Amino acid sequence: MKLDDQQRPPGRLFHRPRHPLVAAAALFSPSARAAGAVALERQGGERTRRLVSVARDAIRERRHPTRPRMRSVVLTRPGRLDWWDTPVPAVPGPGGAVVMPLAMATCDLDRPVGLGATPFPLPLHFGHECVAEVVAVGEAVRTVRPGDRVAVPFQISCGTFAACRNRLTGNCRSVPPISMYGFGVAGGAWGGAFSEQVAVPYADAMLVPLPAE
């Protein structure tokens, strides 16, 4: 269905998704080069190792499944979101947790990402903000337990170094720059909040318990 100007509700903006070739060309734009420089300014080896590990896990689970399956919303091309059948995440180490999103939020960046107007390679698991219920925790987690409801920040941060202690979580030194949910390979392949389960690597630092009421 195509809306002409007379059909459009007053005061609302409509945006068209980028053509896939135009979106692909954006990967070589100045903004993409700048984002790549930030992403690789430190811990490039760690980023590469993680991406390789994620890819190997996906291939292994596809050939010889060992974990239950879940649904995840994936941006497959500009303007198109699909449900993908993927393995549930494993608990990421003693300090990690797995959560089940209950309410997912959108922010101003989700629209340009969804329309292919940002220099993030596709496909990517969509969504980076949510409230969730804790499903499982590692043995070293102290602040949350299964059944707790929590807010989940989109930036991956350890809570240990000075930047994290000063709430500058985007500058965490334990992970490569721009490590976050909902931005695919560019964000470190951490998955997206529009999924039935999400892995949280630093539960005590990242998960914010909701008040009981």
What descriptive keywords fit this protein?
single chain; alpha+beta; five-stranded antiparallel sheet; three-stranded antiparallel sheet; globular; disordered N terminus
Describe this structure in words.
By secondary structure, this protein is of the alpha+beta class. It has one domain (20-209): Medium-chain alcohol dehydrogenases, catalytic domain (Quinone Oxidoreductase, Chain A, domain 1). Helices cover 23% and strands 22% of the residues. The chain contains 6 helices and 8 strands; from the N terminus they run H-H-H-E-E-E-H-E-E-E-H-E-H-E. Strands 7-3-5-6-8 form a 5-stranded antiparallel beta sheet. Strands 2-1-4 form a 3-stranded antiparallel beta sheet, with no helix packed on it. The chain is globular and about 45 Å long.
Shape: globular
Largest sheet: 5 strands, antiparallel
Q: Could you give the order of strands across the largest sheet?
A: 7-3-5-6-8
Beginning-to-end CA distance, first to last residue: 44 Å
Name given to the CATH homologous superfamily: Medium-chain alcohol dehydrogenases, catalytic domain
Oligomer: single chain
Radius of gyration: 18 Å
DSSP strand tally: 8
Mean pLDDT: 88
| Number of structural domains | 1
CATH C-level class:
Alpha Beta
Relative helix content: 10-25%
Report a brief summary of the structure.
This protein is of the alpha+beta class and about 210 residues long. Helices cover about 25% and strands about 20% of the residues.
